[in-house]
């Protein structure tokens, strides 16, 4: 059986299903490259998820409901504290039974679970696992995290609007779509960034607070979060030549890049205008935009309005530091924690030669000499681990609740990385003793529910891992006292946990 086929399905894909390694053995690299075409239609599990406008409005809708509930329990909805004379227990339950934390969990965890299950089902069912792994990579590059409470519902539609349509296109198009998407504008606070010398900056009464049913953050002046993360995490990378002054200038350039969503624009107007996706919810507010030219990394940008920000993004996307940064991250994710320098340079060269055509970069990676080294270089993240197990075990079909428990026990809740730098992509971050033990517990529990007398764990391992299954692991599985023990040994084996 072809070692290259096993590598293609497990290192570059999401894990082999029974029969996959044999099916792609004739041309593993061609099988990967053939997947690098635009997605023609959304996978069924994702098509059922809510619209972007619904995701954006979910938190504010909940806020309005909480405000109404707070009033009924004698609380000030602006301060979230009991009215004079009321007991403090109203905040967290007590005599009233009202709890903001409990209401938040009750409202958003089921919604979150549905989105995670849809992502899982798509990954398990896909016939294009290389494409789907690339989606996961870019979601972890352009990060919108539900760990920020107000953004809890936003990551799935960001993935759908920004990442999936641009996976095989130009990097600059993905960058532009990301920067303009309402989820990114909210997550990194750019919707609140106001140019100091803009009309609103000089006269804040132009944006005087409307009659809100609940306390919400107000305009606070210039905010550099989005500008900094674009330069540091999404394009050039740290220590690549830009300065703090460049970050501040860039932040001024993208003031006025905001969200045309409730409560800013009435929902009925968005519906009537058909503006329910990411593009339709972007709004440029000239009254909040910092006027005048800005200089970034020695270049002066005189363009007016939104064109100024787009010009900067085009230049950042074309910068040699960006090419090297993106090539390094891709090679690290797919090939090795310390990828071969010659591979990174070749991929960066393809990026620059094609104007950031991502398909060309992927093809260069797949065709590079170091891409198919037989040693498994990467340690699977918890999400990768569970997905690969589900692809290998067609009978493993967890419900949303058990899936979330599995992810959380192993330390990775999809769509909820702790910060804008995303989940770590090197083995050392996932190899803690407790985390590894949780994997073994999950493998044993899963095996107990699936193992039967007609299951041959050794044959399954040989099928989905091919020549990557070591003689020692194969022998240990053969000596297992039961199908459950054999399957546990397979799922917990170094070969299955690495790719």
Q: Describe it for me?
A:
With 499 residues, the chain is mostly helical. It has a domain at 382-497. 52% of the residues lie in helices and 4% in strands. The chain has helices at residues 3-12, 20-23, 28-34, 44-47, 52-72, 100-125, 129-139, 155-163, 171-180, 182-187, 199-202, 225-234, 244-253, 267-272, 306-318, 320-334, 341-353, 358-367, 382-392, 400-409, 433-450, 457-465, 471-478, 483-491, 494-497; strands at residues 75-76, 81-82, 92-93, 98-99, 257-259, 282-284, 294-296, 299-301. α6 crosses α20. Residues 82-95 and 210-217 have low confidence and may be disordered.
Could you name the key traits of this structure?
499 residues, mainly alpha, two-stranded antiparallel sheet, two-stranded antiparallel ribbon, 25 helices, globular
- Number of β-strand runs: 8
Q: Please identify the structural class as seen in this structure.
A: mainly alpha
Helicity range of the residues?
A: 40-55%
Give the distance, in angstroms, between the N- and C-terminal Cα atoms: 17 Å
Whole-number mean pLDDT: 91
Radius of gyration: 25 Å
Instruction: Please state how the strands of the largest beta sheet are arranged side by side.
Output: 1-2
Q: What is the overall number of helices?
A: 25
Largest sheet: 2 strands, antiparallel
Residue fraction in strands: under 5%
Detail the poorly predicted runs: 82-95, 210-217
Overall shape: globular
